[in-house]
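Can anyone check this?
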Amino acid sequence: MHGIAFSRSTGSLPAMTPRLPNPSHWEKRLAFFRDPERSRFSGGVDEEIAPSLTQMATRIIRRRNRSSIRSRSMPHGPRATTGQVFPTWRAAARGAGRPRGSAAQTSTSVAFPLAHCPPVSRPAPLPLLRADCASCFALCCVALPFAASADFAADKPAGRPCAQLRDDFRCGIHERLRPAGYAGCTVYDCFGAGQRVSQHTFGGRDWREDPATARAMFAAFPVVRQLHELLWYLTEALALRPAAPLHGEVRRALEATERLAAGTPEELDAAEVAGHRDEVSALLLRVSERVRAGLPGRRRNHRGADLIGARLKGADLRGANLRGARLIAADLRSARLSRADLIGADLRDARLHGADLRDALFLTQAQLNAARGDGATRLPEGLSRPAHWPAG
């Protein structure tokens, strides 16, 4: 559910990757798990979400003589406002891409020494990419499937409304989702796709009053969700000063992504999103490499690595490539993660108590919501401390 819906990493997984029972079954049902930067809810609406990764991870960790874990699912957060906001968003994105300071600073070398490396400047959350559930027809509660697990209390096929959904498109147990067994809902993030599809793509026609729109609406939602996630990362990339030489390419990719997301239902159905994802993935990796190049010392490459339950307390992971790394229940207490690339990293139940995540690259609120931390966890500007984290 979390992370960006990119193509499979070209590198092989580490030798420590555990063997899973019935490989063909898991290869089919856990494609998002094998695919390092894949979004867990980004597949087609008829694609069944696999049984909780928690159950599998628990077996693996027990096999390694580690304690079992409690897991949480991913994204549920930012969305957007209605159609008239989109032109404003384009202007805001253009502004976010201009590094602060003189024109000379725009073309400066990206190899900053650590002591002089400018902090990551995150743009203010853009309305288009923030959740506005009041403007959405509860698409995440209907279009997407989920399986009974530690993240969801019951099975639900794609296209069927959740049993907790009320007639006014509100959740009947919103205030007690976690204790009711729906922790996955508390962290799912559509990046504003819900209200865009509801209010812009389908002009405010809801699937209850106009059932003829249901199939097309439910098919469009995960496509726009993928594109909005790309918009989120591209917008952040424009705020990274060390990547200024790439900002022209980033703006063009952002505009191309926006054009796709603004398409009609028919255009969205025909869109070649996978190829576009691949192009954006390669570009964001180049952005990440430029930003991380300014850090001294050896930068670790854990892209797509199996770090489930890993003991990384106090680890120096500054500038590390953790794209798509499986950090479920990993111990990252007091770890240093400045400039670490966390795009698509699975942080469910990861222990972030006291960790320094300031200036971490491509970290989302959904990833934080799925993890565990406390008042001592240092967060990037623009992201907030999850409500379920203790203050101390």
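Reply from J.R.: I decoded it. Residues 314 and 335 are 4 Å apart (CA to CA).
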